[in-house]
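For the sake of transparency, this paper describes our internal protein records without simplification. The tokens are whole numbers drawn from a learned vocabulary of local backbone shapes. One such record is reproduced below, unchanged from the form in which we store it.

. . .
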Amino acid sequence: AVANDDFNTLVAAVQAADLVETLKSEGPFTVFAPTDAAFAKLPEGTVEMLLLPENKDKLIAVLTYHVIPGAVMSGDIAGQNLEVVTVQGSTIAINATDGVMVNDANVIAADIETSNGVIHVIDTVLLP
């Protein structure tokens, strides 16, 4: 994600939360990666508030809510409705019956393979 200009906010948030090494670890992980446009849809001031050092725990919770253990490709879940536990500990709803939705977010690019998992790009930030 670091090499892609659509994820500047996500990369800054991961760095602020000290999650870079965690997400670079062996995994595998499935990451639902919100674009900069997704972050821009949040209420004004939300991103800035989350990036404050005193809100690091909230930021970590938001970011880890976008990660599930294991590498899940879109073909693995096609046609299914699932509730999946995130690294944060809460569940997300995945509806893969007509495209793929994660809670209220649309997957706009799927199955971007990485050395330790897979990234699916979403158009809305998921909030636990």
